[in-house]
Design a protein that fits this description.
mainly alpha; 76% helix
């Protein structure tokens, strides 16, 4: 049986952002990959038009991210750039993302 993190990755890869977010949130309970999960959660939130919530997740990820973890630091930086791109979307574009996510839920 796959764990919540693996299920979240499957949903993430198929673009079902809301489902992926829920699985990732569930996986926070019993994972040591907290920063990775929070970065993925933030990316889901950006895709479903929730940049403020995504920023909060990224800030939480950065707090637990070790400076020696180069791969996760790179993933964090990429997600942070995507957040700034997401913030440039119009309210209408964000609403379209929310509607699309609700349809794929």
């Amino acid at each position: 049986m796959a764990d919540a993190f693996d299920e979240g990755k499957k949903e993430y890869e198929t673009g079902r952002w809301s489902k992926a977010f829920r699985y990732f949130k569930e996986s926070l309970k019993d994972t040591v990959r907290v920063s990775e999960v929070r970065i993925l959660m933030a990316r889901c939130l950006m895709e479903i038009g929730e940049p403020d919530k995504a920023e909060a997740e990224l800030k939480n990820a950065r707090q637990v991210l070790a400076d020696k973890d180069k791969e996760m630091l790179q993933a964090f930086e990429e997600a942070w750039r995507l957040l700034h791109d997401t913030r440039r979307l119009t309210p209408r574009e964000l609403e379209e993302r929310r509607k699309k996510a609700a349809e794929n839920n």
